[in-house]
Amino acid sequence: MNDAATKVIPIRWEDENSEIVWLDNSKIPWKEVLVSSKDLERLIKAIQGLEIRGAPILGEAGAYGAAMIANNSPNSNSEIIKNMAQQGAALAAARPTAVNLSWGVKKIQDAVNIAVDNGLNPSEVKAAAIEAAKKIQEENIRATEKIGRHGMGLIHDGDVLLTVCNAGTLACDGIGTSTAPIRMAWAAGKEFEVLVTYTAPLYQGARLTAWELHKDGIPVRVITDNMAGHLMREKRAAAIWAGADRILGNRGAESGTVYNKIGTFGLALMAKALREEGINVQMNVAAPTSTIDPHTKTSDVKIEQRKPGEVESLFGAIKIVPDGVGVLNPAFDMTPPHLVSAIVTELGIAMQPYNITIPELLSKEGSMVKLP
Ligand code: MRU
How far is the CA of 243 from the centre of ligand 1 (A)? Predict the structure, then answer.
């Protein structure tokens, strides 16, 4: 494996100052800026401003943020529990669509409750919260490697692959999720080309995925979002590799519904149309089991609506929409399960019918979520 990918540390807990340190995603590829803080408001601002982003990293940020809430609390178990509930709710609500954020907060709330029930004193409870958050990060990193191993068999010599947004190290830690099979296949000597879609309006594909894969020496070219259909047909693309912010796994017909960056649904539809023409483009989704939400229905998932300025102008520098004209800015979309070819997780690959295969995955030893 190329070292470049694993040297990027998107977020970590700094023991010396009891603070969280993150790599500001909003500044890449222009600058690599590390930010540190022990302030919850600053962390929430970083999450909302996409300095920290991507579902699995939001899980880590939720966990480290919850540990920070515990650590900043007075030395009293009842105060810790009260702060975890109140401030933890604000942290979990910082962004609504990726399920991992609230999952990470809840994991640390559970760890704190267990520590308190076991009779630990406040200092020990705080230490237990920090340790639990570090374990989540370690588990996430291991999950990306397993996703890579499971998914690499789906990539073949000569393939043309497309990515959407950034589900790489910056978003998922380790070797990323959608980038994990790509990196593993490349390290195994397979030869292929990756077309990275821009992913307007914030260009996480062009800025972040291209930055990561190029560092690894993987052949990558950036395309605008509206080139995808034409180029997949012309190049007889083999697969789209997407990440996920939430995958429904509620045992019903909605199981396998994928919420991911805006534009994913369109790509999945194009892939289906091309398959009907005889071009076998697969729609592959890679995510850890912590991204599977076994509780929620499509009607209850909130799609984040972001500020108009992101669409009205290019990074606030040049206004591209005439004054007085409105815009819309939904950050995610929903891809129905019948358009999803495979869901690659750390516990293996699920294929249709997802109402059977996702529960099977979640019942395996090591699943990060349990079915109710
Ligand atoms: O708005 P973002 O940048 O947090 O969006 C998240 C994403 O990068 C994608 O939707 C991604 O494909 C899934 S998260 C690994």
Answer: 7
